[in-house]
């Protein structure tokens, strides 16, 4: 965990000033909650009978969710949050990026809201967190809507394709690289994986502003400790579940999304042809229709 200390100590040293400024300037619907090992920044909207929780896919920011929240709010009680170590969800000095430690942090967040049971809609690598939460805390999770995620082995292959020279996946080197290049990495990533020019154009200034003003992008620590080679124990889910994915994501051209069924034969797959890596934001109307169907059919 020595390498991750580069991220945790940096965040811990700056979080008091940064969070004080945030609290003074946050718009309505934006919130900060302090948990045992980190702070979580989130948005809340709607008062529908079912509670939907979306995790932000870094480097996307909460500010990118206006259109999706406007669509969902009439029918759902929605939370969307920035994962620990990303955006303004700043970690404390004792935070651990390990998979199980993150699961404990997320279940603490869900219990803090006290609005379950929840439909979890987590993207990419964070979808594995939703599977683990559904396994370990079934009383908290009613449905799963995983986004842009295959099985663990396919995700490992994706990770290594994106980092063939093991810069991000090398301890210390990856953390220092991200400290120096986080704004550049964020811009190039969104341009590479998004298939929606309007979304790319509108989101990039929001992302750059956040990173320029102290936002976190602990990508190296998350990849090294939260997405290690060895898979955590992930059992088949018993909740109604589906995978929603964008077919035009260039980073996932070689990915077999059918492998998500390793975690439940009942998981249905729902591609969005025109979307890239962020289908919930690139095609929010289609994404909402899939969420509606998930609750109507329970399959």
CATH superfamily: Alpha/Beta hydrolase fold, catalytic domain
**Order of strands in the sheet with the most strands?**
1-2-4-3-6-7-9-10
Oligomer description? single chain
Largest sheet: 8 strands, mixed
Please identify, by name, the CATH architecture: 3-Layer(aba) Sandwich
Q: Find the count of extended strands (DSSP E, 2+ residues).
A: 10
Overall outline: globular
- Class of secondary structure makeup: alpha/beta
Average of per-residue pLDDT values: 94
Element order, helices and strands?
HEEEHEEHEHEHHHEHEEHH
- Unreliable stretches covering 5 or more consecutive residues: none
How many separate helices? 10
Top-tier CATH class: Alpha Beta
How much of the sequence lies in strands comes to 15-25%
| Structural Rg | 18 Å
Spatial separation of the terminal alpha carbons? 40 Å
Helix content: 40-55%
Structural features, described:
- This protein is an alpha/beta fold and 299 residues long.
- 42% of the residues lie in helices and 17% in strands.
- It contains 10 helices and 10 strands.
- The strands form 2 sheets. It has an 8-stranded mixed beta sheet with strand order 1-2-4-3-6-7-9-10, sandwiched between helices. Strands 5-8 form a two-stranded antiparallel sheet.
- The chain is globular.
- It starts with a helix and ends with a helix.
């Amino acid at each position: 965990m020595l390498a991750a200390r580069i991220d945790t100590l940096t965040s811990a040293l700056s979080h008091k000033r940064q969070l004080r400024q945030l609290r003074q300037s946050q718009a309505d619907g934006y919130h900060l909650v302090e948990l045992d090992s980190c702070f979580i920044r989130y948005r809340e909207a709607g008062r529908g009978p079912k509670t939907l929780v979306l995790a932000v896919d870094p480097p996307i920011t909460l500010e990118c969710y206006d259109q999706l929240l406007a669509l969902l709010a009439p029918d759902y009680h929605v939370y969307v949050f920035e994962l620990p170590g990303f955006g303004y969800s700043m970690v404390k000095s004792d935070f651990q990026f390990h998979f199980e430690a993150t699961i404990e942090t997320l279940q603490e967040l869900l219990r803090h809201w006290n609005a379950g049971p929840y439909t979890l809609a987590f993207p990419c690598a964070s979808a594995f967190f939703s599977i683990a939460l559904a396994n370990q805390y079934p009383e908290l999770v009613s449905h799963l809507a995983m986004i842009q995620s295959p099985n663990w082995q396919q995700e490992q292959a994706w990770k290594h394709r994106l980092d063939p020279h093991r810069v991000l996946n090398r301890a210390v080197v990856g953390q220092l690289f991200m400290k120096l290049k986080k704004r550049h990495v964020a811009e190039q990533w969104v341009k590479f994986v998004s298939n929606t020019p309007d979304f790319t154009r509108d989101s990039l200034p929001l992302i750059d502003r956040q990173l320029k003003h102290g936002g976190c992008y602990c990508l190296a620590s998350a990849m090294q400790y939260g997405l290690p080679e060895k898979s955590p124990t992930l059992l088949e889910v018993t909740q109604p579940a589906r995978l929603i994915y964008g077919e035009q994501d260039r980073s996932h051209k070689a990915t077999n999304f059918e492998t998500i069924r390793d975690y439940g034969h009942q998981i249905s797959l729902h591609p969005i042809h025109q979307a890239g890596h962020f289908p919930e934001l690139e095609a929010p109307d289609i994404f909402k229709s899939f969420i509606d169907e998930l609750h109507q059919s329970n399959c």
